Amino acid sequence: MTATPARVTAVDTLDVRFPTSRELDGSDAMNPDPDYSAAYVVLRTDADDGHEGHGFAFTIGRGNEVQVAAIEALRPYLLGRSADALCADPASLARDLVGDSQLRWLGPEKGVMHMAIGAVLNAVWDLAAKRRGLPLWRLLAEAEPEWLVAQVDFRYLSDALTPADALGLLTRGREGAAARAGRLRARGYPAYTTSPGWLGYDDEKLARLARRAVADGFRQIKLKVGADLADDVRRCRVARAAIGPDVRLALDANQRWDVERAVTWVRALAPYEPYWIEEPTSPDDVLGHAAIRRAVAPVRVATGEHVANRVVFKQLLQAGAVDVVQIDAARVGGVNENLAILLLAAKHGVPVCPHAGGVGLCELVQHLSMFDYVALSGTTEDRAIEYVDHLHEHFLAPVVIDRAHYRTPETPGFSAEMRPDSLATYRFPDGKYWAAEREREAAGQGG
């Protein structure tokens, strides 16, 4: 008797929000009061192994319900689908989701629908890695180059990256991969920290956290800038005095400026030797980034957390507009599209330093950087993963930082799964935390 193949039987969605605005964690010039949130999805199957696929899109509060609705719109493509086929070829689902012509009209391949696609695809990769008994970075690093190439959509990329190019990069990346994996396990992947630099922190807290970061071994910290030039000059002076001359000081404007103002502002901060300026202008302004890069050198230009898709990354690289590519695990179309972006960066020889603020982004993106080191770029020179020290306690397999390095995750999956008690507490609007908030507000109004 032939066994019935396992199928996807449920696609559960949750609106999960954390009240980070209360302490101004995550605050910057463009986003002064974020409540870090996850539009969360769980794929369940009828397989005997009991494995589930977990994924999410990251938002900062209001509108998370819109992101959840976008994920729910993809449910028909998943229910009843073969779990074996999904895990064997996530690209087959990516093609179906991106190719839905009516939903595609809402992008195409950008915005809320594309982030929903990314959340679902990341959940599939989480499921695939769990079923293989491997952390995702190992599943990717140990995969055959031909299979990885088949996971990438080369439409719109072939003028800059062909399947043959990608196969060559990945084939060369296999040389010495086992030794690099061993070094990665022994030492981990370099990290830098943004934890001291939120815009809402006063100078004392900034200096104290910056000194602690250096004591903990970090060789780069990041400061939010862009609201007020005089404040930024003072805060850069405080930060540089706290960390000394030999630690890198990165700056992040979160898209606050137009091109001319970006140039003027960065030049004013140049005496404090910033290593890079991140998101100096609109993430869609390729030529603007190129102009800023020419004008502020040797300060580097970094961007990517809000870049919508592989096509814009392609143009940024073709135009010589960036010194540092910052992939985001939950902005583009999941692992599949991030593979394309990593390949583009490798072909152009541009280092990748992922964005990993928010909730759960550190957990996800560590896998992509570790794959990149072991099986593609082969180096960690001028590369580090952002680290933000909050909300990790809500995950079953949280990141571990050891001497300013990400320790390699060994738990099977994509490290995306949140703790059930955290989901129950912070589910919006009926989780225990938010229900208690409503009761407090009602009591205050009644008084």
TrEMBL record:
Lineage at the top is: Bacteria, Bacillati, Actinomycetota, Actinomycetes, Kitasatosporales
Protein name as it appears in the record: L-fuconate dehydratase
Acetylation among the record's keywords? no
> Mandelate racemase/muconate lactonizing enzyme C-terminal domain spans which residues?
203-299
What keywords appear on the UniProt entry? Lyase, Magnesium, Metal-binding
Q: Cross-referenced SMART domains, in alphabetical order?
A: MR_MLE
Identify which cofactors the protein needs according to its UniProt entry: Mg(2+)
Instruction: Tell me which SUPFAM superfamilies the record gives.
Output: Enolase C-terminal domain-like, Enolase N-terminal domain-like
Q: Which InterPro entries match?
A: Enolase-like_C_sf, Enolase-like_N, Enolase_C-like, L-fuconate_dehydratase, Mandel_Rmase/mucon_lact_enz_CS, Mandelate_racemase_C, Mandelate_racemase_N_dom, RHMD-like
Annotated catalysed reactions: L-fuconate = 2-dehydro-3-deoxy-L-fuconate + H2O
Q: What class of enzyme is it?
A: lyase
Q: Write down the Pfam families for this protein, in alphabetical order.
A: MR_MLE_C, MR_MLE_N
So which domain of life are we looking at? Bacteria
Give the EC number(s) listed in the UniProt record: 4.2.1.68
